[in-house]
Amino acid sequence: MANTNLEDVPSENLMTELLRRFKCSSKPDKRLILVGPPGSGKGTQSPIIKDEYCLCHLATGDMLRAAVAAKTPLGTKAKEAMDKGELVSDDLVVGIIDEAMKKPSCQKGFILDGFPRTVVQAQKLDEMLEKQGAKIDKVLNFAIDDAILEERITGRWIHPSSGRTYHTKFAPSKVPGVDDVTGEPLIQRKDDTAAVLKSRLDAFHRQTEPVIDYYSKKGIVANLHAEKPPKEVTSQVEKVLSQ
């Protein structure tokens, strides 16, 4: 909505859009990075932060796919790398972030999710922002114990045709392993098994701990207690961002 002209906005939405712009105009600019292992709650909190602070959400995977689909010069380069089965270079990803940040919806700043994953990427991101006279304001670290994550994730079961989800501990089905509505069997996603989770967590710790150290030295990391219920995590985030 932020990049549309007001005359293009249908009149019934006009008031909402004007109120949104008014609310956003008083918000401070914020450039945030969310860091956390799979299942730590980043996906729950980022839309709340995005709306509250009028930021745009830059998920690098989605942005790459969008750039490839839009056949932008960077997208074309990225596609060449992907077609060869190579990783898209850090410079390319930073270039795509640079491009995305120029959108009007990113005027107040952004939330970066899934990047940087390495210290080199963090340095390249900082260099790019520096050229624009900007910097990362806060790194929100969704800190959570591996054992809690394992319980959260490996307990998830899904009814494939409806997408209904259950959790053996937090939201069990009436009959174990069976969907409440249809009585059909529940399945577990491949990613939700203990073995897959362990390798994802190992990779996360190996790659990302150095990134957290890198930003800690700059004094901009806020450690959140991500094992707490979502509402409590939201209020922790609000506290951190109001400082």
Structure description:
Monomer. With 243 residues, the protein is an alpha/beta fold. The chain has a single domain (6-242), classed as Rossmann fold (3-Layer(aba) Sandwich), CATH 3.40.50. It is built from 9 helices and 7 strands, in the order H-E-H-E-H-H-H-E-H-E-H-E-E-H-E-H. The strands form 2 sheets. It has a 5-stranded parallel beta sheet with strand order 2-3-1-4-7, with helices on both faces. A two-stranded antiparallel ribbon has the order 5-6. Strand 5 and strand 6 (164-167) form a beta hairpin. Helix 3 (60-69) crosses helix 4 and helix 7 crosses helix 8.
Key terms for this structure?
243 residues; two-stranded antiparallel ribbon; 5-stranded parallel sheet; 9 helices; 7 strands; adenylate kinase; 49% helix; transferase; Rossmann fold; alpha/beta; AMP kinase activity; P-loop_NTPase
Write a compact overview of the structure shown.
This protein is an alpha/beta fold. The protein is 49% helix and 14% strand.
Topology of helices and strands:
Blueprint: H1 11-25, E1 30-35, H2 42-53, E2 56-59, H3 60-69, H4 73-83, H5 90-101, E3 109-113, H6 119-131, E4 138-143, H7 146-154, E5 156-159, E6 164-167, H8 194-216, E7 221-225, H9 230-242
Parallel strand pairs: 1-3, 1-4, 2-3, 4-7
Antiparallel strand pairs: 5-6
Function: Catalyzes the reversible transfer of the terminal phosphate group between ATP and AMP. Plays an important role in cellular energy homeostasis and in adenine nucleotide metabolism.
Organism: Cicer arietinum
Domain Adenylate kinase active site lid: 156-191
